[in-house]
Batch of 2 targets.
Target 1
Amino acid sequence: MKQNLMFIAGLCAASALTSPAAAQEAADSSSASGSETSVYDGDWLSVGVGMGYGPSYDGSDDYVAFPIPVVQGSLGGIGISPRGGGLALDFLADPKKGVGFDFGPAVQLRSNRASKIEDKVVRSLGKLDRAVEIGPSMGITVAQVFHEYDTLTFSTDIGWDVAGAHKGMVVSPALTYFTPLSRGAAVSLTASAEWGDRKFADYYYSISPAQSAVSGLAPFSAGKGFTKAGLTAIGGIDLDGNLLNGGFAIVVGGGYSRMLGDAKDTPLTSVRGSPNQWFGAIGIGYTF
């Protein structure tokens, strides 16, 4: 679940450290009234660093801590959003209100079972290579759902491994609701899932006869399908009490994910791990 946690922590920074959608809505409203300008009026960039804590691999019941860097912003009209070990670009400008569309490329590094494998039996299977997944990121955002500053976004990333690790395809849909709680605080709630093709599932969840002989785990052949689904809550507080002027902010986030299908039934999860995956993160960022 390390990969999921990195993505979620990235959303922490995207939603609360920078609050690009809702803060921009607030900025548009303020600018229209002539009362205030915002750091989000033109080009802006947010950088952050945090610490995550989650399962050592997808399906593990051993937990590890690791650092999380995050970059988020908008430069020259191109949106930049964080991903686990990567980022996504958005070439389409969002309207000030109503429905907007997102589209651009995404790239992310998947490090599942590539390091920090705490379980000695799973470690005996050998470390996996890191995958680099590249593909389109697309979404629909609805602004002002319940009030003037909230947003609801449905997004999907589709990635193909170009590094020769799993050599397959993975699809990651998500539904996120974002709303400020006050001038200096905001929260987001996200429901997400992951679907992998046969190559993806086989690489991460199958156990070959040779691996079975080494580890004592039963052989297992994993097929395509949904591998996980979960819910995440994220909250952020601007340290000077004003999300619109940038500066420093602190974010905390946590959530639960459930392994599904063959990703749940594999002995890596059912025998050596757990289908219940908990995770959390805390970080600090600066927007300018």
Target 2
Amino acid sequence: MSWPGRAAAMALLATLLAACGSEQPPQAEGRPVGVVTVEAGQFSDDIQLSGEIQAKKDVGLAFRIGGRVLERPVNVGDRVKAGQVIARLEPALEQNALAAAQAALTAARGEVGTARNSFERQERLMAQGFTTRPRFDQALRAQETAQAQLENAEAQLELARDRLGFTELRTDVAGVVTERRIEPGEVVQPGQVVVQIARDDGRDAVFNVPAAVLDNHLADARIRVVLADAREVSAQGTVREVAPQADPVTRTFEVRVGLQDPPEAMRLGSTVIGRIELTTAAIVAIPASALTQQGRAPAVWIVDPDKSTVSLRSVDVLRFDPGKVILSQGLEPGEIIVSAGIQALHPGQRVTRLPERRPSPRQQAAASALPP
């Protein structure tokens, strides 16, 4: 081969070698893994308790005076109206006292008239100089005494009338009689409760709640109350009162839930079930398949979105639920973690992310729906 032909062949070979050197070797494919994007949410814990319907306020009615019960025209379960007679005492003593007070008032009025006439006569004589000063002063004091006795007699008459009126026990509230404590013929003392009335101005659902539940934000919880034998009958309520001391036997605390517009079917004494939804602050829930270990500590694989490599990070587990793990810390919203294919991964390994599988709108609605 001539020298020009040999030079051309060498130039062509050099060009081919240069072209081959400029090509980059193909990058290896990453390990296919399933991934999820971390999202923050609120964790709801539902607690169901059994209780009963009670009146928001109970009123115990009692006589202001003592005596023998003549009649009690109401029984347990009767509905009463404001002003209705609940019981009566024998009024003979009070009637006699009223008659005596009326007689004393009549006598006091006569004494006042006599004393006034005597004073007026002494006053005229004093002006004419025909009487002494002591007699005038005596007539004045007699008139003042008679007037005071008249006022006392009037007060005694009013007191006697009141005591006669107290022989009838009337209710000043509307409601239902829940308890009777006396029977006709019994002698009662002043202030002794005769009947108990549940007022009509509200109803409570009363539950015995363990102390562990009280540690949560129970006052802010949403409470749904349903009848135990008719779950379709329901009402919403909020915590109105929590007992400051535990029951000595059950070691539970009485919690009264004020019901908002309770239906008529929720009668006093009905057994109800209260569903308390306790909501925590923002937390992170991940699929249970994403959890692995770093030594003895729980951990997850974090995907670097720029380099498509993985790294292992320790997390703190709040609780385990079927199919998911609730974390208290360790992940931030927006981070990408491996949820499938965590076996045989190692730090810095390149991965290929498979498309995320998100729940359908129907599944999301079903997950967020509150059970009855």
